[in-house]
Amino acid sequence: MKNFLAGTLLVLSTLPAMAAPTAYQCHYEGHTGRNGLQKKAVYVIDPEAGTAMAYDGYIHHTNKAPMPTSFKELQPGKYLLKWKLDNIPSKRGNTSLTATFSARVNTGKRSSTISVRIHGADNDIRGSGPCTAVRQ
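Request: output the structure for the sequence above.
Response:
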């Protein structure tokens, strides 16, 4: 938790003081019964620039800092973010995983859904939950 809070502050500190981006902290509950979903994530979304960044426990472990994501505005206030991570630690010994993440953030409803596809596995990990604006 302490590392996640520090990471959230790092995300916010990278934003210019008068910037248009907004950071959203989202809390996820899993829907597939599979482990591996991070319970918290922070997304910094800048619709004007067409950019976004993501940060969660996996990103902290692999990158130590927020990472840029692909960004698509689906409708006003609805965004699709995608990113890929390598070297995610596995609970199965000395192996690491690669996964592709897809998050849909609805800023109007302050909610998000997430899907995680672990490469080489059969099923996706899915979750959803509320988001709160951390900074505008």
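The longest strand covers residues 78-89.
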